[in-house]
């Protein structure tokens, strides 16, 4: 497996304001020692409840925020410390698809301008005529009519707006799409259409995905491999079928048990595992999951578990293993 992207020990801490004069500044541990690889052509799913650090991980990888520690390699080059000038051509290949297609599309831009903007930023293609042809081709590829180029984002449904967001990401010949909850703002009936479009485009363009969702069923549908995050850490990582059939970490088991059998809107409330996520400012000692864990032992509150390979390609951080 040649890695397209490799993250090693990625960490992001935020120093918060002092609660009282002279008291120490609390540290929010948003992402803690996260490592993973995404192979060329692979979809790597990142799943976890909101606040688990998934979006922060995505932003770190794209250098939208600065890492506190760790490194990221893209096509064999360490990118976090590259000068902006050297990073720009690589950044062009790494595009983001956002959760809220309404919020991420500038409402004062026509569709044409939205899709052209990244081409202008990266000066590819160079001429206005080539760009216009490319906009038309991209709209057709994402299932929209080329005549929609003259319209405004508000004239489209949520699903159509996400198609525009995807066309925008593809405008500059991306190789890696980082999709952060790309369907969670959409109606369930539209979600499958967008996911299937993303799969088709992946094959057509030879894309790789870092695919982020809180919904395990969505991640399962999309991913070749899955990592589960809890309180800023990856607690389990395995091939898709393996994690579904033989989940090892008690938190993963809890997530799977919470997936409703019939995915209809009324059942959504059931998709929340029991117990509250502790604050990342004061994570529980030892295994951060221990206050919610049905399998916890004495050691769990004292010592943080180390990630271990329990089967080929299947890694879990839990004292049970
Ligand atoms: Fe549960 Fe202990 Fe494993 Fe943490 S280390 S998940 S508390 S059994
Ligand atoms: Mg998020």
> In total, how many domains does the architecture comprise?
1
Count of alpha/pi helices: 10
Q: Structural class of the helices, strands and pairings?
A: alpha/beta
The counted number of beta strands is 12
User: What is the gyration radius calculated from CA atoms?
Assistant: 21 Å
CATH superfamily: P-loop containing nucleotide triphosphate hydrolases
In helices, the fraction of residues equals 25-40%
Biggest pleated sheet: 8 strands, mixed
| General form | globular
Strand content: 15-25%
Parts with pLDDT < 50 across at least 5 consecutive residues: 264-270
Order of secondary-structure elements: EEEHEEHEHHHHEHEHEEHHEE
Question: Please, what is the average pLDDT?
Answer: 91
Quote the distance from N terminus to C terminus.
26 Å
Q: Classify the fold: give the CATH topology.
A: Rossmann fold
CATH 2nd-level architecture: 3-Layer(aba) Sandwich
Domain ABC transporter: 5-256
GO molecular function: ATP binding; ATP hydrolysis activity
GO biological process, one term: peptide transport
Organism: Falsiroseomonas algicola
